[in-house]
């Protein structure tokens, strides 16, 4: 795998990995809601990644979950989630990841998702396939929704979580089963590796999916991140070609039906 930005991405990932053991899992702040935590590690890792990338690429745009967007207008944009799965991290549940993507002229060219707890590095360069610890990965070939194991997640806004739970309530007897692992980047990479057959979620931010979406598409998945979801929150769907259309249609229909029903707020 060759791309001039790949060594920079790998060096930034290494800086974040080195910084992680010195951090505390204690939640020090919250963001969009009281259940959306920030730990010191989220901030320290983003700073480590930013500093490393700035050494090589001082004028690139940088979009990070913790410190927002910086940099001059530029063809290259780095999109980073220093810890995807912060709730898992804060509870010592080993499913959280460092996610680094490099986008050039609007197309994501390099994607790294490092699943810290499982020691797995998912990696992709546009046009060159996707790997997990350097072994090529491929999306599931399942085509039957009734036999599909589907991963999903919940956002942090209470009213949206309620609707997301209702979508699952409608789907649960139409599919093999549901998995909620707690880190969207890992969900998408596990879809890429065929460990689940498909994935959907509303309300993801670009740093949740940027790197993983390239890994999934390079592993043969179809990926959409901008379908109508809840209000302004988009719907992301990822699955192999044979399952994608059925999964996307069913989930989209459910969102449209349930969002048009009168609100039943507690
Ligand atoms: C969250 C995780 C979670 C998903 C949420 C994301 P964060 O990211 O990926 O699995 O359900 O939608 O916001 O906050 O841990 O970086």
TrEMBL record:
Enzyme Commission numbers on file: 3.1.3.25
Record keywords, A-Z: Hydrolase, Magnesium, Metal-binding
GO molecular function, one term: hydrolase activity
Keyword DNA-binding attributed: no
Enzyme class: hydrolase
Alphabetized InterPro entries for the sequence: IMPase (IPR033942), Inositol_monoP_metal-BS (IPR020583), Inositol_monophosphatase-like (IPR000760), Inositol_monophosphatase_CS (IPR020550), Inositol_monophosphatase_SuhB (IPR022337)
Cofactor: Mg(2+)
Reactions catalysed, as given in the entry: a myo-inositol phosphate + H2O = myo-inositol + phosphate
One matching Pfam family: Inositol_P
Keyword DNA damage: no
Family, as annotated: Belongs to the inositol monophosphatase superfamily.
UniProt-recorded name of the protein: Inositol-1-monophosphatase
Source organism per UniProt: Ferrimicrobium acidiphilum
Lineage summary: Bacteria, Bacillati, Actinomycetota, Acidimicrobiia, Acidimicrobiales
